[in-house]
Amino acid sequence: MKKLMIIILIVLLCAFPVVHASEITEREENLDFLYETLKGSHPNIFYSTSEKEFIERKAEIKKNINEKSNVEYVLDLQSLVAMVNDSHTNVNIGRALKDVHIYPFSIRHIETWVLDVIGTEYEEYLGWEVVSLNGYDMKTVKNKMAPIISHDNNVWLQRQLRQFINVKEILDYAGIIKDDELEITVKKENQEKTISLHTVDTSADTVDVVYLAEKRSQEPKTTKDKSKIYFSMPLDGNVYYIQYNACQEDKNLPMETFSLNVQNDLESNDYQTVVIDLRNNTGGSDGMIMPLLYVLTEYQKNNDVEIVGLIGENTFSSATINAMMIKEMGGILVGTYSGGSVDHYGAVDQFELPHLNIQAGHSTKYIEIDSLFDSGIPYGIEPIKPDIIKEQTYDDYMKGIDTAVHYIENNTGKLQANDDKSLYISRGKLAHLLYTMSLENNQSLEYAKETPSDVLFFTYYEEASRWAIKNNIIIGKSSTIFAPSDLLTREELAVVLDRFMSYINMEPSERQQLSYNDEKDISIWAKDSVQKIVNIGYLELENEKFNPKSHITIEKVENILENIK
Which of 422, 456, 492, 555 has the fewest CB atoms nearer than 10 Å to its CB? Predict the structure, then answer.
C-alpha cells in the first residue's frame, strides 16, 4: 500500500459563482484573441476542419458564455483548439487552477484497459478489465472525451485519455457523469463488478491507494529510469540496450560523451543486436541523437549487426522523427504504433490569453518526413506502424517481463523489416538496389568524395548515393542535392537502367521494335533510353502507352533487376 500524492497533472479548475458583465467581455475578448491568433500563427488550422465549422463552434461558445462556470469556459476554449486536430496545439490552463476534484483511480492499457490504481478498499479489483464508466463502454468514453483532447491520431488520443480520465469536471463536461458518484464496471474472466467512487478531498495531503505495479513479481531491467535521460547496458552477450527517454542533453553526461561510452562498450563485445528504446520519449530536439547514430553507423559498417528501435504510444514529436531515422539506417522497429504522427505540425510557440493568465501553444510549421527520408514515403499524418508489432501482454507485465524486449532477445539475428514492395520506388531505394548488385559482383567501386547535403550520414543509401553520382548512374538534382525520397518516373527509371547496363558492360539484344501512342509525352532526354528499355522488354507498355510520368513499384523494379543479373 502507498499514499497517493494528489499531484495535479492536468488542466482544471476554478469556478466563479457569478459571471459579471466585465468578465463576459473579457471572456469574449479571450475567445476572439485565441481564434485569431491560431488562425494567423498556425500553419493551417483548417487542414482537417473547415473555417465554417470553427466559426460555428466559436459562435456556440459565445452564445452561452455568460452561463458557463470558469471550468466550462476554459474547457470550451480547449474544445475550439482541439478542432485543429494537432497534438502540439492546445490550451495550458494549469496556472488557473485552484480547486480540483479527482477520483482515486487510474487506468492503463495493457492489451485492454485495466484498473491500474485504486483505493485500498477495492484492492481486489486491481488489474481487472475496465468495462465502462457510468454505463458508457470505453469506446464511447473515448469518443465523448475526444472533442477536448488535442490529437492528430487515435493512438495519442488513447494515451491522453488516461491523463484526463479521473477528473470530475472533465467527465462532467463530456457528459459521462452528472453528480459526484462515478461507477466503474470491471470484469475478470466470468466475474463482473461495479464499484462506486467519490472525489477525494484535495486539501488533504494523501489518500490510500494501491498500484498494479506493486503486484508485479519484479520490474524488468528495461523499465523507464525516470532519473536518467539516457543510459545503456548489455542485456546479454548478444543484445546491447540503449534507453533514450527525452530528446535533450543530460548536463552531467553530454551526448558526445555518452556516445563514446556506447562505442567503447560495443567494441568490447561482438553484439548481434543494438536496441534503442524510444517508448517513453515524448520529444525535444530531434538532432540530439546524431552523435549516437554516428557511432552506431560506424559500428554497423564493420559488424554484422541489426539496429532495432522500440516504439509505443509515448513515442511522440521529435522521438517519432528519431524512430524514422532508425528506419532510414535500415533498422527494424518493434513495439506498438507511435503516439506521434510521421508527418505532423510541430515546432511549438507559446502565447498568453490576456485576461486569464493562461498560455496556449501552437505549431509553427508542418514537418513532412517523406520529403526528408525515404522511409517516410508510406506515411502522412498517421502513427508509425512498427515492422514487428509486439504489445505488452498482461501476463508478462505481472511477471516482470518486457514482452517486446523478450521477443528481440529470443529472435536475435532473425528480425526482418516489413518492406512494403507495393510502394513506388524512390531514388534512394533504387541507388541502394543497384549499388548492392555491384557489390555482389565484386566490382571495384568508386565514390564521389562529398555526400549530397540532403543525404544524412546514417542513411542506408549514403554510400549508394555517392557511388551513383560518381558513376553517372543517378545524377543529383543539383551539385549538392540528391533528393533520395523523390519517386522515380518510368522515363527516369529507363534512363537509370540504360546507364547501369552500360556501367556493367551489359548489352542485351532487343526483342522487338515497339511503338507507343504517347511518345510525344516522353522527355527528349529520355527518348533513346525509353526505346531501348521497352524493346528489351524490361518496361512493358500499358494499353499501348508508356506512361512516362507515372511511377513504378519496388516489386516491379526488383523483377527487372533480376533479369539484368
Answer: 422
